[in-house]
């Protein structure tokens, strides 16, 4: 019977182990934590955003980190394949806004336990709290791993150790060291899907305030680099929220996105400059006897008004009926381009995913097998692939894990038959 070793029991490792075992392989799954799927527990704010219902073409578009590398993996194992498999095993799921899919129970803990028992049902030998210290190739071509408990051999080895973000979940970059020791190139590691740190202090005073239906855009030397519409959040160090996380992904991948950069927040992206000016005039007429900052209470959140007025250079205590046309235009312009200086991001360990990893050119996209070392496979975040939030990263992990698990098991079976 062919033997497959899987290192790392995250989403990719679990699917790789389950798939290889279902193909008849004898599988050992090594995990440094005391549970499987620990990092899955923080996805979807603890609810486990399993995947998304969009087309696989859209999955590629939502994967700025080498999305095209995933074409073959997504052809072999789609989001529909994943849900069919999970549902057939007994895990109920549901679709929510934006096509995001969650377990019916809204519990990542349930998903972890469910997959753990499925691994056991299929005979996978799970080594919990057993850290892999080294991976090497024996003279006879078999793979070997050294762990805290001993040395183990297999016909194939699949590395699914994740990235370097959220090290408390076990993602400490071990796989990069294994890959490098076996002759692989590891591209520069950067934080992706991570909040921005700003030079200005005023976001700190608004900490906890969220803005919906706004547009955030990154600018460098007067040129727009990226823009997204949606929700954002002010924090004690700068800004966060969905559109900020997506902008951070662009900053991780675009060469021209070098800090410091300017972040412009359009508080009224649905309105033209002329329409916004008319809206301001109506409000100022409605509250004609009030001070300007009080006359804007229907336009903006109360705590944000002083910030906008200061950037527009307007004294908020001046009566609304004394604001000139030019000042009104400056106010509208500020509302559609509230500026912040982004000096960088939060530390890599706080990122949702790691941009960078084992170079995709050194991996066969049809099998996830190394082009440098036969019988060595990679899957999940350890590869230089990363996507936006919304279930895209977990699907990439599941799909590459499936492909690697199947290829490793089938290849060894074919070689044994020969």
**Would you identify the CATH architecture of the largest domain?**
3-Layer(bba) Sandwich
| CATH H-level superfamily title of the largest domain | FAD/NAD(P)-binding domain
How many helical stretches? 13
Structural class based on helices, strands and sheet pairing: alpha+beta
Strand content: 15-25%
Mean pLDDT: 95
Overall geometry: elongated
Explained architecture:
It is a single chain. The longest helix has 26 residues. Helix 1 packs parallel to helix 13, helix 9 packs across helix 12 and helix 11 crosses helix 12. Strand 8 and strand 9 form a beta hairpin. The C terminus is likely disordered. The chain is 33% helix and 23% strand. The strands form 5 sheets. It has a 6-stranded antiparallel barrel. A 5-stranded parallel beta sheet has the order 6-2-1-10-19, with helices on one face. It has a 3-stranded antiparallel beta sheet with strand order 3-5-4. It folds into 2 domains: 254 residues, FAD/NAD(P)-binding domain, CATH 3.50.50; 151 residues, no CATH class. It is an alpha+beta fold and 418 residues long. Its cofactor is FAD. Keywords: FAD, Flavoprotein. This is FAD-dependent oxidoreductase. InterPro entries: BaiN-like, BaiN-like_dom_sf, FAD/NAD-bd_sf, RsdA/BaiN/AoA(So)-like_dom, RsdA/BaiN/AoA(So)_Rossmann.
């Amino acid at each position: 019977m062919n033997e497959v070793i899987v290192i790392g029991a995250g989403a990719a490792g679990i699917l790789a182990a389950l798939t290889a075992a279902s193909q008849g392989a004898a599988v050992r799954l090594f995990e440094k934590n005391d549970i499987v799927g620990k990092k899955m527990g923080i996805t979807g704010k603890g609810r486990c955003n399993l995947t998304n219902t969009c087309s696989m073409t859209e999955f590629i578009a939502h994967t700025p980190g080498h999305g095209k590398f995933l074409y073959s993996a997504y052809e072999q194992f789609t989001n529909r394949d994943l849900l069919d498999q999970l549902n057939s095993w007994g895990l109920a799921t549901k679709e929510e806004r934006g096509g995001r899919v969650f377990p019916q129970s809204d519990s990542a803990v349930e998903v972890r336990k469910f997959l753990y028992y499925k691994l056991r049902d299929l005979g996978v030998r799970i080594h919990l709290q057993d850290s892999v210290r080294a991976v090497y190739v024996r003279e006879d071509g078999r793979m070997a791993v050294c762990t805290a408990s001993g040395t183990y051999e297999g016909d194939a080895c699949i590395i699914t150790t994740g990235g370097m973000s959220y090290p408390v979940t076990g993602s400490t970059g071990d796989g990069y060291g294994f890959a490098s020791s076996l002759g692989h190139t590891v591209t520069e590691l950067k934080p992706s899907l991570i909040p921005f740190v700003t030079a200005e202090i005023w976001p700190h005073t608004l900490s906890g305030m969220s803005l919906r239906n706004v547009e955030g855009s990154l600018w460098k030397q007067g040129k727009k680099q990226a823009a997204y519409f949606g929700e954002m959040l002010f924090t004690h160090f700068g800004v966060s929220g969905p559109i900020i996380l997506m902008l951070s992904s662009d900053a991780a991948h675009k060469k021209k996105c070098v800090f410091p950069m300017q972040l412009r927040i359009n508080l009224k992206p649905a309105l033209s400059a002329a329409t916004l000016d008319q809206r301001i005039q109506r409000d100022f007429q409605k509250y004609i006897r009030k001070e300007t900052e009080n006359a804007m209470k229907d336009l903006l959140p109360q705590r944000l008004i002083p910030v906008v007025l200061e950037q527009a250079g307007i004294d908020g205590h001046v009566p609304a009926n004394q604001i000139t046309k030019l000042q009104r235009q400056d106010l509208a312009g500020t509302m559609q381009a509230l500026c912040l200086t982004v000096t960088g991001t939060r530390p890599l360990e706080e990122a949702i995913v790691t941009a960078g990893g084992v170079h995709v050119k050194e991996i066969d996209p049809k099998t996830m097998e190394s082009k440098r070392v036969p019988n060595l496979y990679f899957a999940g975040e350890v590869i230089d692939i990363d996507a936006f939030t919304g279930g895209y990263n977990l699907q990439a992990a599941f799909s590459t894990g499936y492909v690697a698990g199947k290829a490793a098991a089938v290849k060894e079976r074919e070689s044994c038959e020969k």
